[in-house]
Structure formats: structure tokens, C-alpha cells
UniProtKB/TrEMBL annotation:
Entry-linked PROSITE patterns: PROKAR_LIPOPROTEIN
UniProt protein name: Glycosyltransferase
Keywords, comma-separated and alphabetical: Signal
Leader sequence segment: 1-21
Amino acid sequence: MKKVLTILSLLIGLVSLSACSGSDEIIGTWNAQAADGTELVIEIDKKQLTVDGEKLDYVQNGFGFENSLSYYTIEVDEQETYTIIFPEKDKSLALLIQPTDLEEPLAGTLVFALNKNEKPNYLEYGNKYLK
């Protein structure tokens, strides 16, 4: 019984640690476009993201599936919450939104259109994937 409790405690600790760092789907180099047409590169690793040369700490604090979309929520510098939405099975295309309500992670303002392979188009992605 003591051995089972020890193993259970270790598993809970590992799940807690992995929940804080970024999932493989969001990690990588992303081409991004903002609403004003500005193009930039966003680098995301397990604990930090770099936007236009500025390094920011983040924790992944949620994930889910809804209406055939998969998504991850992140909190940046313990201040702002964002949702990274994957609207297709291809995980090289994503939308980064700032939710207007933390209880509704898929509703909010589109901040960046993201793509790992090519330059994304903010208006095209917004019109196609956000309704």
C-alpha cells in the first residue's frame, strides 16, 4: 500500500509539472501576422515565448477540444491569458486569441494568425476559422 501511494504521488507530481510547460503542438517557430498586417516570428519553447525579440515567461494552464477544434490556454508573465486554437488537424496552422471571458477560451479577439510553414494571412484566417 505504501508503495502504491508513493507511485501515485510521483505520477501526480509529474502531471502537475508537465501541465505547466508547453505542449509539443505549440512549441516551435511560428510565422505570425497581426491585425494591422505586421509580420513577425514567434518562438515558443517549453517555458518561454519570444515575440519580436522580447522574451516572455508563460505557463500552459489548460487544453481542450470543442466543435472539432483543439486548443491550449497559456498565461503570459502571470498577467494575460491567451488561447492557441488549432482549427484543422494540421497542427502547423493556428490562431492566437485573447479571450474576453476566461470561462469561454474560444471566444475573444484574434491577436495573431500563426503558421509554422508559411506566412499566414490574418484576415483570411479570421474570416475562415472564427465565426
